[in-house]
Design brief:
Helices cover 6% and strands 48% of the residues. By secondary structure, it is mostly beta strands. The strands form 2 sheets. Strands 2, 4, 5, 6, 9, 10 and 11 form a 7-stranded mixed beta sheet that branches. A 4-stranded antiparallel beta sheet has the order 1-3-8-7, with no helix packed on it. The relative contact order is 0.32. The model has no long low-confidence stretch (mean pLDDT 93).
Amino acid sequence: QAQLVEYGGGMVQAVESLRLSCKTPARSVMRYNMGWFRQVPGMEREFVADISRTGSTTYNVDTAKGRFTISKDDRKSTVYLQMNSLLPEDAAVYYCAAAQPESPAAVPESYSKWGQGTQVTVSS
């Protein structure tokens, strides 16, 4: 029933990689800015990365640490988050979200559509 559906999460060991995917309704990635957020119990939802409808990207430097890359496939109407060199601190539920094109990136209030999340667990 969700308009945004995340998949690709799972359990990995430290320094391994995962690629998360977010399937959106037709042409959504061409109409909205798409973002990835993550959340752990007891913490606020944290911004990870955003990609605009034109392909411009924004990253949370503290979160991405040069290890994460956001991208999208317009034809497949899918946005991706490539996560390399994962660490236990990266474990969280990762959410895909859509925002109006002129809304500022990284601000949770900008995103009106959210997926149900996909769990990422990292063991050391």
